[in-house]
Design brief:
Number of helices: 0
InterPro entries: Gram_neg_porin_domain (IPR033900), Porin_dom_sf (IPR023614)
GO cellular component, one term: membrane
Pfam families: Porin_4
Structural class: mainly beta
GO molecular function, one term: porin activity
Protein name: Porin
Mean pLDDT: 78
Number of strands: 6
Number of domains: 1
Order of helices and strands: EEEEEE
Strand content: over 45%
Radius of gyration: 19 Å
Length: about 160
Amino acid sequence: MTPNPNGAVTNDYGGAPFFPFQHSPLSSTVGVDRQRIAGIGASYAFSNITVNGMFTNVKYEYRDGTSLRISDYDVNINYALSPSLFFNAGYVYTDGQLHNAPGDPRWHMASVSLDYFLSKRTDVILSTVGLRSLGGGTCSARLNMFRQTSEQPSFKNAS
């Protein structure tokens, strides 16, 4: 294996939401040395219902000797209420393990949505997402696509 002084993951991701994928949990100046990704999924459709499941495993090895492994367990159901209206419900459990760094990030995420197709290429989606962090120490989960509107935390750490 050839050393990668700039890190395996550099400009692929941008901004704060992707910080753990670019830098060590101990230092923002230490990049990723190696990234490994594996996953498998399945889908089964019957009548108006489609059930999907997926497992992914990602491991980041940082240049300071720390590492992060994240395993996602994902299941979701899509139900066609009509040819243009769909109900979707999903659940994801994320189990993270840090090596040579404090904390183990874990969280539950659930979502429910209604998807209405106005045309073949245009739809309107009404969606809600719930997220609960379980990681100890400095670990937390964040919904970066939404702006926090109050001083209250969006979720609590249940460690």
